[in-house]
Amino acid sequence: MTLLTKKHFVFFVLKATSELDFFVPLIWGIKKRDWDVDVQVIYLSFNKDNILRETQFYSSTLKQLGVREYDLSDILRPAFAILKPLIRRWNRTSLWDTPNTLGGKFQRIFWKIGKKICELFIDLKGHLDCLNPSIVFFPIRSFSAPGVDQFLSYAYEKKKPVVLFPHGTFGSTGFQSLYFGKEEGLPEFCYYWYPFPLEETIDRYPQFHERIQFSSYPGNDASWIDFLKTQHSKQGEHLRVLFVIRKFGRSENAAQTDSTLTADEFKKTLSAVVQAMKQAQAQLVIKPHPQNNYEAVKEIMKEFDYDDWIITYEPIYAESLQADIVLSFGSTTVTIPSLQGKPVILFNDSIAQEFLEWEGSRKVFEGLVYQLNDIYEFQTTFIEVCCLVRDPELLCVYQEKALTYFRNYYSAAAINNCLAFLDKMGERF
Fold it and tell me: Which of 16, 150, 188, 293 is close enough to 125 for a disulfide, judged by CB 3.0 to 4.6 Å?
C-alpha cells in the first residue's frame, strides 16, 4: 500500500444507519488487508444510540475489527465533561420515536434547541487535530448535524482528503448535487464516490471529473456477501419473510412528502401481507426504515389478529440471509437481498414510482421478477414465490439470473475498487 506508515481513517455518521451500510463493509475490507491503519467512527450525535437504536450488528462488527466508536459526548471540552452522563441520557432516544402528540412536538423543539446549546460544549476540531486523520469519509447529505461547522472549519484549514460517500445503492434521480457545507462543488481536497454506474453526476460536473469516482457499493461486494453467509443463515424450516418498509405519515390523510407513504397506503399493503402470512403460516420480520417510528409500527400491527411477527432493529445485512423471501416498498436496498440470492417482491407504491422517473433506477427495478402494481395480486404472487423457494432447482435458476443481471451494475470487487482509490490518494497526499 502507498499509505506507508501508521495512518488514521475517520468515518463520520450524520443521520442514519444507511451511512454505516456503505462503509462498514469497506472497513471490513480495509482490515483484511495488511495496511497499518487505525480506524475511528464518529457519530455526530450526543448519543450514538439515537442513531443505532437497538441494533447490535454495526457495533459488534466494528468491535471485532478493532474499530473505535465515538459520539459527541465523548469529545466534550474538559470544563463540560462532568455533564456527559446527563447529555447522553437526554439524547438516548431517537427523534423519530417521539410521539405524534403536542407533547411530542414540544419535545422535538426542545431537543433541537438543546442540541444547539450542547454543540458549544464539544471540541471536535481539537479531537481531529489530535488524531490527525489521513483520510476522512463523510456522508454526502444535509450538513445540519451538530459538530458539522467545526468539521468544515478543520477540513478547509488542514485540507486533508475527504471522501464524500452516498447512503444508498442508487438514487431516485440521475445525479447527486455536490455540496460541501453550503458551497456547491468539490474543494480541491474532496472526492465524491458514486455507487451506481449509470449516475450522471460526472456529466453535470465535468470540471471535477478526476475526483468523481465510481466506487460501486461495498455492501454488494462478493467477498463481503460470502463473509455474511458465514455469520448469518436461515435456521429451521419455518417460512420466514422479511418486509422492508418505509416511513409513513402519522395520520390517514397525511400528504406524502420526502419519500413518505400515506398511512392509508401503508396499512392497505400491510393488511394484504399479514393475510398472506397467516394463510402460509409464515413468520413476518418487519425491518423499518431508519426514519420510522417503531412504536407507531407496533401499534398498527396490534390491529391485526396475527402473532407470528417481530420487528427488527438489525440491518438488511443481518436479516435478509435469515429470510426465505424479501418484500419491499420502493427502496434502494432491494439490490442487497437480490445479490444474496433471495427472491424479492417489490410493491410499486408511490415511492417506487418516484424511482421509476429516472431511467437508471428503472434498470435496477427491471431486474426484479416480482413486481406488484396492484396489491390485490399479492396473494397469488406470494404463493408462486413460496413454491419457488421450496424447489431447489427453480430457486437456483432464479438466483443465477438475478446474480447475472445485478452484476451488470454492481461490481463483485467493489471493496477492491475503493481500496485502489485510497491507494492513489496515498500517492497524492
Answer: 150
